[in-house]
Q: What sequence folds into this?
């Protein structure tokens, strides 16, 4: 079957020289998804084949190049770009100070980053002290958190932040959970316990997952959908081990679900699963880690809101849950309840996602017919949609014997407003607000999208 690649995708400029020199692999930065506020970068592409890291959160994107420069772009209403300006949106990546940056972590409204000298810096919203600089004053550009130069990794969790130092100690600041319930406010990093065996952190919206050097999994914070994996939906007010397994290797927190890879390469997931984001072929939530499939060749994972992405050891890219495929202003969901390979390319390096957009690093630019991340059947339908404008009911009439299996009405961001399934030929709209919508008609033969004006 042929495929039509319909999402809006931004490609880094191809650099042949970089691809042909030494053993170093070029790393092109590719973005796709919702283009609001310029977070995908310019139409001409995010240039360069020298990206080392790419991270997304909320409505903005950040990346570090191999020369250590940090770039940000997208939404900046809360100064989350850290560029020192009040520019509300920017689609052109711009450097954040000419410094040597090593690693970073983003939440929707603030960022944390470590320089190559081991110092910790932060910018954006700071109402809970999550920047760690001893205040609750927000920052338009990076401010240093303390004077220590032994930071190894960080996790931006919204109102709370976590960090691990080179000696393996764990530190927290911002809206730190209290042992008796609720949260406190720490405006500077505070060591958590006396252990020096912490290895990795992942934080999102007040939820935190952690790994120790012995391979055990730990959790802390909000747990309203079971995303911490301890068998409950109760808040976890103290650092708590999850299960007894000691072979966890990687962790990734999404909005309401979590992913992990074990040392044997198997994939695990838990938490909210209304769109199949766990990947276990169901839409049933899980309060404890469950294995996803039998494959043991997973290498990288990232968890968004309603979907997940992963990269296998053969460098192929996979997705599951409900993602949105974009073509400029057109958008519609594509759902899979289990991991599905996307395209045929096998040189994906890393991937990062959040609510509605994705950034990934790749050795080469996507090849024709396989570079897009999500493929949908080629549009081959000839369907009449009327009336347009509409007020009560939208009728859908195929020009031949095509069987319609689903009709979906979304807003212009891709959010599904209404969906009817089965052998259907109409969708009611009389109770919906006036304005422009997108109507997607789906059949086994393909799909068709039309703009609809409701009056």
A:
């Amino acid at each position: 079957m042929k495929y039509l690649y319909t999402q809006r995708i931004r490609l880094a400029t191809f650099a042949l020289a970089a691809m042909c020199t030494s053993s170093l692999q070029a790393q092109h930065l590719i973005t796709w998804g919702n283009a609001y506020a310029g977070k995908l970068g310019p139409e001409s592409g995010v240039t360069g084949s020298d990206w080392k890291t790419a991270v997304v959160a909320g409505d903005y994107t950040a990346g570090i190049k191999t020369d250590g420069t940090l770039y940000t772009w997208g939404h900046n209403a809360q100064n989350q770009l850290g560029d020192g300006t009040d520019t509300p949106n920017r689609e052109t990546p711009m450097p954040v100070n000419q410094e040597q940056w090593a690693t970073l972590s983003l939440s929707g409204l603030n960022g944390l980053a470590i320089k190559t000298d081991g110092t910790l810096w932060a910018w954006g919203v700071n109402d809970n002290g999550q920047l760690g600089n001893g205040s609750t004053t927000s920052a338009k550009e990076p401010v240093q958190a303390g004077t220590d130069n032994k930071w190894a990794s960080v996790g931006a969790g919204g109102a709370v932040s976590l960090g691990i130092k080179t000696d393996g100690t764990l530190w927290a600041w911002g809206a730190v959970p209290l042992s008796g319930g609720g949260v406190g406010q720490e405006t500077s990093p505070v060591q958590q316990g006396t252990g020096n065996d912490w290895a990795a952190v992942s934080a999102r919206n007040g939820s935190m997952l952690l790994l120790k050097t012995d391979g055990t999994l730990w959790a802390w914070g909000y747990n309203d959908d079971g995303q911490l994996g301890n068998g409950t939906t109760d808040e976890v007010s103290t650092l708590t081990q999850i299960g007894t397994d000691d072979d966890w290797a990687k962790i990734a927190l999404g909005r309401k679900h979590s992913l992990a890879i074990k040392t044997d390469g198997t994939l695990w997931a838990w938490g909210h699963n209304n769109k199949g984001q766990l990947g276990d072929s169901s839409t049933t939530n899980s309060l404890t880690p469950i294995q996803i499939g039998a494959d043991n060749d997973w290498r990288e994972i990232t968890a968004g809101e309603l979907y997940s992405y992963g990269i296998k050891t053969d460098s192929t890219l996979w997705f599951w849950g409900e993602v949105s495929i974009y073509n400029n202003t057109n958008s519609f969901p594509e759902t899979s309840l289990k991991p599905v390979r996307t395209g045929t390319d096998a040189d994906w390096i890393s991937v990062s996602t959040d609510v509605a957009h994705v950034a990934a690093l790749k050795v080469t630019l996507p090849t024709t017919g396989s570079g897009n991340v999500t493929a949908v059947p080629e549009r081959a339908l000839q369907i009449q949609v009327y009336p347009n404008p509409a007020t009560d009911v939208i009728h859908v009439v195929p020009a031949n014997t095509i069987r319609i299996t689903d009709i979906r009405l979304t807003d212009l961001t891709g959010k599904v407003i209404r969906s009817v399934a089965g052998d259907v030929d109409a969708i009611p709209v009389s109770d919906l607000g006036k304005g422009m919508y997108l109507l997607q008609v789906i059949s086994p033969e393909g799909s068709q999208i039309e703009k609809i004006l409701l009056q």
Confidence is low (pLDDT under 50) at residues 1-24, 325-332, 368-380. Helices lie at 16-19. The chain has one helix and 37 strands. The longest helix spans residues 16-19.
